[in-house]
Amino acid sequence: MPESSIVVQPEPADSSSYTAAARLQAAGLQSAIAVFEQAATEVPIPSAPQPIVIADYGASTGYNSLLPVNAAIAVLRKRTRPEHSVLVVHTDKPDNDFTALFRTLEEDPDTYLRKDRATFASAVGRSFYSQILPSASVNLGWSSWAIQWLSRVPAVIGDHLQVAYCSDESVRVAYAKQAAHDWHEFIAFRGRELCPGGRLVVTTMAIGEDGEFGYRPLLSAMMDGLNELATDGLLTDDEVTRMCVPTVGRRAADFAAPFAPSGRFERLEIEHLEIFDAEDRFWGRYRIDSDAAAFGARWAGFARASVFPTLSNALADGNADPRAAEIFDRLEAGVAQRLTAAPQQMQIPLAHVVLFKRPKS
């Protein structure tokens, strides 16, 4: 299973649609950066020559963390000398595209390596569901659109791509148990890695008080598109049944559960927790330009980048299946066509969580 999603889209600097401001419109990113900046004002700074360590958990290709890390470094620079080294550690699973990650860090116009000469990049190819950095070594942590991915698929969903819309109660229970286990493991190991006084900012899918996971029009378009491909013989019914997007949204109580009853776990405590509906930036553009085709294409492109790759696990030959490219091309086109025909605003429930490691008294 992946441990990251590409949410901030990779657009070249010479693209007519590229601006740093456009990237800030990625769902929940701007408010998450504000939370991250606040955390950067409060974490302890080690004495030089020991570097300030920022960990990016679930880095993917690096696009999601460029602006947040830049913002945090700018805050830290107000608190320390310009030559004080900052070490940014990007983590993801071993099969992540680390070549793309390092190319992003080298070439992207928003890379922090161009903006701060005393900042250095490294990467760790291990799952964040284990301890992957030395104990008490991380001053500031960031994780966006990553912890929603389960460490394993606990059951076949069968009647939908997303467990939130599955009709089988036993399947929903299995996914809830796996989600609880994964969150427990994630924060347990981050509690060891954070230094006393360190903070970790997490942005992830959530479920609000209305009980909604969100994304209904997009997921419906994907399901209809897959069923059409099965009708056309490009996919088998069994492959469609086994396809799923193993992500979960968590409620406030789910985030808080490991900390009960004392409010602390591995010396961590929740310093800040908010669940909100993020802005659908594609819908915002559509309301301005009334370009339904562009609306459909943007959401279809988002789905292809962020979730289509995991669907290939259900193909007969997995990621190496020779049909994969055609399936994704046709599925993307089908999703775009359906959303173009009936544009609807997406509900995007998100959570910002700040975890604080309290120093020993």
How are the elements arranged and paired?
Elements: H1 20-24, H2 29-42, E1 52-57, H3 66-77, E2 86-92, H4 98-107, H5 112-115, E3 119-125, E4 138-144, H6 169-193, E5 194-205, H7 216-231, H8 237-242, H9 252-256, E6 268-278, H10 281-289, H11 292-306, H12 308-311, H13 324-341, E7 348-357
Helix pairs in contact: 2-3, 7-13, 10-11, 11-13
GO molecular function: metal ion binding; methyltransferase activity
InterPro entries: MeTrfase_7, MeTrfase_capping, SAM-dependent_MTases_sf
Protein name: S-adenosyl-L-methionine:salicylic acid carboxyl methyltransferase-like protein
Overview of this structure, please?
This protein has 361 residues and is of the alpha/beta class. It folds into two domains: 16-154 and 171-213 and 249-279 and 346-357, Vaccinia Virus protein VP39 (Rossmann fold); 215-244 and 281-344, Non-ribosomal Peptide Synthetase Peptidyl Carrier Protein, Chain A, CATH 1.10.1200. Helix content is 40%, strand content 17%. The chain contains 13 helices and seven strands. It has helices spanning 20-24, 29-42, 66-77, 98-107, 112-115, 169-193, 216-231, 237-242, 252-256, 281-289, 292-306, 308-311, 324-341; strands at residues 52-57, 86-92, 119-125, 138-144, 194-205, 268-278, 348-357. A seven-stranded mixed sheet has the order 3-2-1-4-5-7-6, sandwiched between helices. Helix 10 (281-289) packs antiparallel against helix 11. It is globular. The two termini are 40 Å apart. Mean pLDDT is 92; it is low at 10-25.
